Amino acid sequence: MTLVEINFDGIVGPSHNYAGLSLGNLAATRNAGATSYPRAAALQGIAKMKTNMAMGLSQGFLLPLPRPDTAWLEELATDPDTDPALVAGAWSASSMWTANAATVSPAPDTADGKCHLTVANLVTMPHRSHEWRDTLAQLRLAFADDAYFAVHDPVPPCFGDEGAANHMRFAGQHGEPGLEVFVYGRPGGQFPARQHEQASRIVARKHGLDPARVLFVEQNPEAIEAGAFHNDVVAVANETVLFTHQHAFADPRSTYDTIIARCPGVQVVEVPADRVSLEDAITSYLFNAQLLTPPSGEMTLVVPEECRDNPNVWSWLQDMLAGNGPIRHVNVVDVRQSMANGGGPACLRLRVVGDPKTVDPRFMLDEAKAEKLESVVSEYWPEAIDPAQVGSEALAADIREARSKLMEILDITELG
Predict the structure, then answer these.
(1) Active site members
(2) What is the per-residue pLDDT for 187?
């Protein structure tokens, strides 16, 4: 069995809108009330997946969740006239950011030799707190072969867990045993610390990880206050490289030293704050990038267009490429619709190390399937959603039909 990294991107759902529901996510709150473009958003995401496939990488996808979630509104006894934020929460397309779908520990790291996935509870934000049931059903379908996968229920909701966005892994190669790093925040600041330390520890125990190959690290409170609501907004790892902002961690020197001691050969590419400020890093999403190893072996950083738009960020990237560091290429992708709602290239994908042959093939992407996705999106996804339309029965019917057509063309009908 050949283990490779598979990126599972979330297909942007037809209800994609800018309701500004995510406290601490500055892009989302800044663009609250703007008109969104779900069709363009989904096509941008598919184009990004195709770009990664063109590099020779394995690519999967996860489906949008059923929206609007009327069962959730009924559970909350919601009055649409007096609870507009809850109505908007039922329409949210935030499951597109599959980095928050689950935390994943590859088979070489776990006691039973299976790939373990724990669905995130996402309890900190009401509009995301009801995602986990449908996400869990989808994960159990995509990774149904229990000879290779174990899919777990969420951590109890008293502990906030936001999934792989706060998890990094270091290994010589993806298929080798690695060091798993869980990054948590401490409460008490202006913005909520979404990943709780105890949630991370529970996930590590569920996955049967060797304590000697697990590290728990505190995120820098300054970064959270600046708008880095997840660790992947200020740091990303791939194999033996940590690409990080100087102010990503509460104790950066100790973090680097411990990672290198436990996983010799790790190289730290630290971006100094005097070249790229936290504000520059967060507005450009320099670190919310995909750091990938294509078959060529030349590590590639996939960044959003906003990085090219920021002179400080782009200048630093050019200097990095001119050097002899481990990151050899920078690919720029257009995911502006996702970025405007607070999610970059890394937010859109869940990394799973496994053999693609063990995954339900309906969730694996190829060129023919990508064309099918583009066809359905182009025909059925709303072109634009004005905030005033959220709650409209006519639009809700269109959104349900769009998702139904997608599942029909993919022959994934079990999810309803």
Answers:
(1) 162, 230, 347
(2) 81
Residues 276 and 282: beta-carbon distance below 8 Å: no
Distance of alpha carbon 170 from alpha carbon 184, whole angstroms = 17
Of the candidates 275, 220, 288, which has an alpha carbon nearest to the alpha carbon of residue 253?
A: 220
Q: What CA–CA distance (Å, rounded) separates 36 from 387?
A: 8
Rounded CA-CA distance 388/68 in Å is 15
Count CA atoms closer than 13 A to 356's CA, side-chain side. 16
Q: Is residue 82 part of a domain?
A: yes
Strands, sheet with 235-238, edge to edge from the N-terminal-most edge strand: 235-238, 241-245, 267-271
Residue 415 lies in a domain: no
Examine residue 416 and state whether it is found in any structural domain, yes or no: no
The pLDDT value given to residue 23: 81
pLDDT block averages, 10 residues each, the chain of length 416 = 95 96 84 95 98 98 98 93 92 97 98 98 96 98 98 97 98 97 89 93 98 98 94 98 98 98 97 98 97 97 98 98 96 97 96 98 98 98 96 97 98 91
Structure tokens at 396: 């809700």
DSSP per-residue letters across 155-168: PPTTS---GGGGEE
Are 170 and 179 a contacting pair, CB within 8 Å?
A: yes
Q: Let me know if residue 369 belongs to a domain.
A: yes
Half-sphere exposure of 71 (CA within 13 A, CB side): 7
What contacts 24+ positions apart, CB below 8 Å, involve 126-130? 126/21, 126/85, 126/86, 126/89, 127/19, 127/21, 127/22, 127/88, 127/89, 127/92, 127/94, 128/92, 128/94, 128/95, 128/100, 129/157, 130/69, 130/72, 130/89, 130/90
The total of structural domains in the chain comes to: 1
N- to C-terminal Cα separation, the chain: 33
- pLDDT at residue 74, as a whole number: 95
Here the CATH number for the domain that contains residue 98 is: 3.75.10.20
- Pick from 203, 8, 200: which is nearest to 98 by CA? 8
Could you give the 3-state DSSP secondary structure of residue 6?
Answer: strand
Residue-by-residue DSSP string for 180-195: EEEEE--S-SSS---S
Give the pLDDT of residue 227. 93
Close Cβ partners of 148 (under 8 Å, ≥ 6 residues apart): 107, 114, 115, 354, 355, 358
Boundaries of domain holding 272: 4-410
Cα–Cα dist 339/288, whole Å: 10
pTM > 0.70: yes or no: yes
